[in-house]
């Protein structure tokens, strides 16, 4: 609950007139109620842009606590706005505001757990912990609404569709920050590979971009006994897989994190004596640097066209750009780390954690407003993560 201990520092919102040490008592008092909320959300998971029940529960609770509510941003998104009761320490200084964001959607997967609050909806599960994210932000909202012991304005941003469609980008395009101006924004993700009680905060890139490619190779089919009369798309595709790997190993600055993975190779049919006319390659390109990202996307298409053409075939390359690099701003990250240390202790805030090549659509918000995205430890040990 680092967001409950944010203190005034320069242009940041001030929560109270004192430094918290450890957990906030008022939040601890909500623990059982928050546990019940999470179990309810976990039992009723909803997919991206289908978070109707979750959004309604969130909006109703916020309104009950006296928080101004705006519904239906990016279809199912909810924003709660709360003003503090404290005046500015600086006479005449404009009041500042921050955004606190949580995602609400679940995954399309079957839950195999057997505890009493397991998913009640076949094929859907909160496997990524967004039920916990939503619960934590609701807890923060209830606590702050009960005290209003802070200066400025807080926007509680409950975002849809992080898992699949980039709901963060939809909220930004629908005027999130024009309608709810934020001087800075913060988000977090539970992290099972980090010990419970630890928090990781990193300045700069913390999560990678993720883009998808689809390459359709067109050759000339024929009999397996007469390959010289064909243009074999399987052979061409095999060469292309190897060549694509060289884009990272030989054409990318090794100091810039990037990875290209071919994850699909489809060709041929049940007949083992037929060379097919077509092959399909699909995969992802991930990077921790936006310039590297752009270069790889351009090189992927150029290399594919050139190699396939040189071997007598043709190809179509379709690239779907996904989430950009998640980049934490320096001052907000440092501020966030200092606050986290007041909650969990300085030895448990990891500032040199390595970034991950996974992607996160909070990146769209950080492209528009300075802020910080952190990982909240949920695991038993680093080698024995807690599900």
Helix content: 25-40%
Q: Strand order, main sheet: write it out.
A: 2-3-6-4-7-18-8-17
Label the overall shape.
Answer: elongated
Overall mean pLDDT stands at 91
Structural class: alpha+beta
- How much of the sequence lies in strands comes to 25-35%
Number of helices: 10
Please summarize the sheet with the most strands.
8 strands, mixed
User: What sequence of helices (H) and strands (E) makes up the elements?
Assistant: EHHHEEEHEEHHEEEEEHEEEHEEHEHE
End-to-end CA span: 20 Å
From the alpha carbons, calculate the radius of gyration and give it in angstroms.
Answer: 24 Å
Low-confidence stretches: 1-20, 382-387
How many strands in all?
A: 18
């Amino acid at each position: 609950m680092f967001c409950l201990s944010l203190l005034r520092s320069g242009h940041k919102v001030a929560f109270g007139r004192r430094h918290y040490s450890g957990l906030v008592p008022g939040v601890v008092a909500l623990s059982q109620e928050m546990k019940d909320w999470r179990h309810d959300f976990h039992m009723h998971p909803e997919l991206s842009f289908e978070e109707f029940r979750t959004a309604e529960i969130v909006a109703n609770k916020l309104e009950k606590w006296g928080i101004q509510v705006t519904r239906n941003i990016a279809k199912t998104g909810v924003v709660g706005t709360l003003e503090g009761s404290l005046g500015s320490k600086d006479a005449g200084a404009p009041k500042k505001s921050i955004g606190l964001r949580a995602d609400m959607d679940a995954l399309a997967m079957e839950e195999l757990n057997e505890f009493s609050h397991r998913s009640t909806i076949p094929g859907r599960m909160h496997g990524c912990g967004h039920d916990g994210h939503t619960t934590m932000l609701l807890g923060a909202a209830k606590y702050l609404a009960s005290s209003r012991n802070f200066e400025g304005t807080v926007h509680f941003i409950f975002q849809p569709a992080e898992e699949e469609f980039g709901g963060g980008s939809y909220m930004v395009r629908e005027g999130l920050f024009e309608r709810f101006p934020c001087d800075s924004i913060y988000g977090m993700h539970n992290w099972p590979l980090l010990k419970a009680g630890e928090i990781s905060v990193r300045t700069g890139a913390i999560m990678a971009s993720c883009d998808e490619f689809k390459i359709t190779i067109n050759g000339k089919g024929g009999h397996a006994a007469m390959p010289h009369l064909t243009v074999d798309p399987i052979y061409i595709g095999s060469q292309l897989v190897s060549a694509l790997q060289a884009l990272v190993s030989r054409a990318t600055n090794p100091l810039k994190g990037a990875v290209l993975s071919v994850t699909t190779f489809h060709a041929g049919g049940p007949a083992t004596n037929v060379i097919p006319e077509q092959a399909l390659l699909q995969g992802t390109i991930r990077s921790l640097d936006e310039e590297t990202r752009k270069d790889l996307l351009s090189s992927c298409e150029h290399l594919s066209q050139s190699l396939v053409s040189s071997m007598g075939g043709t190809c179509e390359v379709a690239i779907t750009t996904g989430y950009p690099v998640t980049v934490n701003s320096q001052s907000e990250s440092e501020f966030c780390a200092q606050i986290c240390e007041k909650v969990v202790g300085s030895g448990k805030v990891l500032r040199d954690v390595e970034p991950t090549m996974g992607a996160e659509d909070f990146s769209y918000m950080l492209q528009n407003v300075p802020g910080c995205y952190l990982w909240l430890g949920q695991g038993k040990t680093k080698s024995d993560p807690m599900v």
